[in-house]
Known about the structure:
There is one protein chain. The chain has about 325 residues and is of the alpha+beta class. It folds into two domains: about 5-220, 4-Layer Sandwich (Glutamine Phosphoribosylpyrophosphate, subunit 1, domain 1); about 235-330, 3-Layer(aba) Sandwich (Rossmann fold). It has nine helices and 15 strands. The mean pLDDT is about 95.
Amino acid sequence: MCGLCGQYNFSTETPVDPQEIKRMTDALAHRGPDDEGYYVSGSIGLGFRRLSIIDLLGGHQPMSDAERTVHVVFNGEIYNFPELKAELQDYGYVFRTNSDTEVIVNGYKRWGNDVLDHLNGMFGLAVWDEKKRQLMLARDRAGIKLLYYKISPRGLKFGSEIRALLATEKSTSEMDPVSLNLFLRYRYTPSPLTLYQGIGKLAPGTRMIVKEGAARIERWWNFAPAPLDPMPSVQQAEEELLELYKRAVKRQLISDVPVGLLLSGGLDSGLLLALMNQSGKSWKTYTVGFGSSFRDDELCAAADTAKALQSSHISIELDREIFNTTLPEQPS
């Protein structure tokens, strides 16, 4: 899952306290038990907790270029990183790791802020350009990975979770009644709002550029469907959709650690498992449910799907006592 955080005192240019970055990073320890890293230089500070997925030994973050002028912290996965790495190597860029993070580092050096247009994946990231004195925060197109921020008279704080921002606060942040109203109405808080006053979240497909004493938020991606010309037949559309689905699943199986699947009794996860089987059949699947005491429980249906598709399946049945005992322990 990983977690990133940081501060940039762009308004005052006062030095960042390394201990504040440490406290912010520690607040994200549950997201990344495998590694931690820091970069603090003057008015900028970055922190990272890592859950190792790709390049277990070489993917330490914050990750910098060879000249140590570009520094990146990144939560997510870049599915097309092998192709991007080959393209950047053709341009003459040298890679020191097999991590997908390094394509962001060298990609930024090649394309600047437009590196986002080249990334196929899910991400919340921060790029610090030491030469330009510019910080870029960005969120992926669909908003799979979250990125929260707070701008104060001193500058900017940001992180993968709100708790990282609160870790250095001397007083408790007040709840935002407008956001609470929206949450109760829609069951979520629309960007850039959060339940906390003064704390926002980047919307999907947007980025924040902090430079020359100012911060601006802009949209870097818009969904713009193109008309089909010529219009495909139903059979052609079905074949094309299946091919797109296959390619997407295959990309997301790239990992240096075992991959599993949360399996329900429904169509979506069953289709995912069937497509995963085209790249091997040693997948582990998991289902959590309440058993026959819950009318809509899917434990049995998921077990049938797992048997039909030959996965190594684990069913976990919860009762009220287990649920009430473990709920307070969950980080979310």
